[in-house]
Amino acid sequence: MLADLSPIIAATAQWLMRAYPSGGGALASALCEVQARQAVTVAAWLRYPTPTDAALVGMAGPGGAARLDWIAGADAAAEQDADDRAWRTWVDEVVASWAASLLTDPELAGLAVAAIAEGGHLAGTPAEFRRLLAPDDSDRRAAALLRHPDLLAPVSALHQEQLLQLLKPGQALIA
After folding, report:
1. Which residue in 36, 33, 47, 39 sits closest to 4, CA to CA?
2. What pLDDT does 78 receive?
3. Using CA atoms, how far apart are residues 74 and 24, in angstroms rounded to an integer?
């Protein structure tokens, strides 16, 4: 399943890292990227729980980053080259919003990881989400902007209600 969603995961994590960058060098950037990818992976698996869902979004495309860029104040499309615009078309607004919610709410992140485990996404997959669920001090410093609730509030608020509904007790993910 991860391979089917890998363009969306890569692009959406890249968007989060560019919108809320780490400010502390190569190691901090790597730690920030891991946290963004883990949050985006969980969000993507929740958003597209079946192989059919993943195939459909792969064919139709996720929608792009235009609205997210505007909300985050990074809507300088005129300054983007063709390569930059190309990857941005694979950004999924709902996945970015859900990932932002997971990065800023540890309890919600725990519920989301538990939900994907119940849905079968982790079966046979060596997936670990420690940096999302239990970030240490280095992780927190590296992703200070990426995990800042006030900064991510406009993005997480876009689709957070859907995520909360999905993670309500008794809701079942299809896998």
Report:
1. 47
2. 46
3. 21
pTM: 0.90
Written as six digits, the tokens of 2 are: 């991860």
Give per-residue pLDDT as tens, 129-152.
999 999 999 999 999 999 999 999
In tens, the pLDDT along 24-45 reads 899 999 999 999 999 999 999 9
CA 143 to chain CA mean position, Å: 14
Mean pLDDT, residues 118-138: 80
- Cα gap 2→114, rounded to integer Å: 17
How many Cα atoms sit within 13 Å of 34 on the Cβ side? 19
